Every structure is written in structure tokens, then in C-alpha cells.
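pasting for ref
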Amino acid sequence: MRFTCKDDDGSVIDLTSATKVYFTFKKSGATEKKFKKECSVVNPPTSGIVTYSWGETDLAETGYFEGEIEIVFNDGTKQTTADKIGFNVREDLDNA
């Protein structure tokens, strides 16, 4: 998956000074996250683009989920993207 990190006013977030970028995923309405995994920053980091490759079991559970991108900068500050990302994970038709 490919995400462009934007702040509250829609401006692209420069990831040049980011040390880590995470994708956090949880079931809608849940208080506990399903996972928090590292993303890859796409060059040039000024584009604000990151990618995440789904793991083998990331989408094993069906239902509605939400995700967000968290950026950790080299001074220790953290920023999450303005919008949450919604997902509807359905049963694989090959396994129906």
C-alpha cells in the first residue's frame, strides 16, 4: 500500500528528518491495536510518500478496520496523519 502523509491543512509532510514511520491497524471500535508495523519512506522523502507491504496474517480477520500513519522525527516528536484510513476486510472468495 502507498500513502501520502499529509497534515491537518492538507500539506504534504516532509519526511527528511523522520527516523521511523509506522502503520497502525485496529478493528473499528476496538481499544487495542491489531498491529503497529514499520513503513518504508519513498525517495525523495520530501514527497511524504510511504509504502507498507501487508504481512501474511495482517488481513486474516474479516470486518471493518481503521489505520493511521505515525511519523517519528529525529528530535523525538511524533506526528500522525490527519485522516484515518478505513478498510473493509472481507472473506477471500477462493476460500468461501
